[in-house]
Amino acid sequence: MYRTALFLSLAVATVAQAAPQLPRHAELDLHAARQLADASLAETLRRNECLYVPDYAINAGGIIDVYYGRSGGSAAQLKAHIDGIGATLGQIFQRAESASKTTVEIADQLAEERFGR
């Protein structure tokens, strides 16, 4: 069994949605953090089997809420979009593990894919 420390910003509930994507034998320690002071720290965390959730990925619910509030979207649309954050985090975790890359690299790639860059 290995220990997984999950570093995140603020939205612990969203991480709980992604928990099924984590290895079943992982122990979780949640640590509040802001952005990494240095990009090389993401690799250090990865090598030590620690998941880091980039700030913009874990806090996506805030901007999604603002969008639906301003666009007049329904509560059901808002909930469905926010519920998708857990799946996105799971995708980040799986892609990072299979590619032996950091979650920061994968989250950046995924964001660029979604924005069509």
Summarize the structure.
The chain has 117 residues and is mainly α. It has helices spanning 12-18, 40-47, 55-58, 60-71, 75-99, 103-114; strands spanning 3-8, 27-32, 51-52.
Features:
117 residues; mainly alpha; Rossmann fold; 3-stranded parallel sheet; 6 helices; elongated
Characterization of the model:
With 117 residues, the protein is mainly alpha-helical. It has a single domain, classed as Rossmann fold (3-Layer(aba) Sandwich). It is 58% helix and 12% strand. The chain contains six helices and three strands. α1 (12-18) links the parallel β1 (3-8) and β2 (27-32).
The protein's oligomeric status is: single chain
Tell me the Rg in angstroms.
14 Å
Total of DSSP H or I helical runs spanning 4+ residues: 6
Stretches where pLDDT falls below 50 for ≥5 residues? 9-18
Overall number of structural domains? 1
Give me the secondary-structure category.
mainly alpha
Total strand segments:
3
- The shape is elongated
Overall residue-averaged pLDDT value = 76
Question: Largest sheet, described in full?
Answer: 3 strands, parallel
N-to-C order of helices and strands:
EHEHEHHHH
Strand order of the largest sheet: 2-1-3
Assess the beta-strand content as a share of residues: 5-15%
Given this structure, which CATH class is correct? Alpha Beta
Quickly give the CATH architecture: 3-Layer(aba) Sandwich
